[in-house]
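Session log. Operator J.P. requested a structure for one protein chain; no other inputs attached. Running the standard single-chain path with token output.
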Amino acid sequence: MRKVAVFLLVFVVAFTLFGCSQGELPQSDDLRNMPESSISRSNSNNPKDSDTSNNPESTNNSDNLESTGSNDSSVNPNDTLKVHFIDVGQADSILVQMPGNKSILIDAGNNNDGDGVVSYIKSLGIDKIDILVGTHPHEDHIGGLDTVIKNFYIGKVYMPKVSHNTKTFEDVLLAIKSKGLKVSTAQAGVILDTGSSVKAEMLAPNGTGYESLNNYSAVIKITFGDISFLFAGDAETESEIEMLEKGYNLKSTVLKIGHHGSSTSTSAEFLKAVAPSYAVISTGEGNDYGHPHQETLNRLVQANIKIFRTDESGTIVATSDGSAVSFDKAESSVKAENSPETKYQESKPSTVNESPTETKKQENSAGEKTQAPPSSDNTERNGETVYITKSGSKYHKDGCRYLSKSKIPISLSEALKRNYTPCSACNGS
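Structure written below.
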């Protein structure tokens, strides 16, 4: 009954806010078309009227940023771009401070991270979030958004065109409604109004009807001079392929690794197209999902990409003047190691492949632990039926999430003869 009630409330609020059909959030009218007085009343919780004891303008600490509040005349004296990868554990929250006193907040961590995100932003002297993005409706990305909305003057809100039947999603919608705001659709082709020399555009999502909510993730590229950042949300391989097929210019100096470093993201093809010099992984220390996966780390190390991790360094701040970028934390000392897939390739199949009846843990699209279905084949392992796709070099077990588009049966022995190797999910990564 609780789930039904939550769903009904979410629908009612969503319909009120967006005037849309169930499960979709349409593009709203630009808030710039609203009367300024209306916007001001909607955002009555202006922190400029509250405690300013943490405003860096009141100190001589050169490491602090100048206030980016829209009603404050101060500007960043060095005309720099600063990107804060806020440590929210096994979650995402990214603050972008731009020249011209504008800021973008991408996600706000889990439900219990909201207060911490608010405190961090206020410590920088910021009282307005010009652009607020909830990349997709998983709790580890939008959980703290309601708290942020309640504590700051909000300019514009972007979320993808999908809803989620959770209390977390409901709370975000109610917070948006309470400020009299509307939701603009986060989708490929959207250009964000930065009001400065910074270009910000969305490269995903490029479709609808994804099985995984992760693939609805808003992927944002920010360019400042010769330096660019690509924030991948939790976008998985399916979304990455779509971006590649669209022919977008993905090349970026810094890549915020998708899905906390999961092997479901950061495919070799995508990484090659982005070709970053630096990678930032937002993940929690000792998390239950094993993020970042070794397979992903191996790709980064082998490509000579410098890696920064919030689970090792806490909050990470990247600063750019448009010609170079620097980080306030030391890069990770991670080295390439044998992933489960690499071990398979280096060993005899008979010594690595598990019994057909053995049940293994695998990660679903939301990053949750599920049980992989056991095989019912009790014959010799190499006689087991596996599946390949029309493209790719991996074989899969029945029920594998990567078989959504094509599924061609083949014996394991034949797959091995044709140099197919197990996908990361089926090999227990």
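Operator note: Confidence is low (pLDDT under 50) at residues 18-24, 26-77, 341-380.
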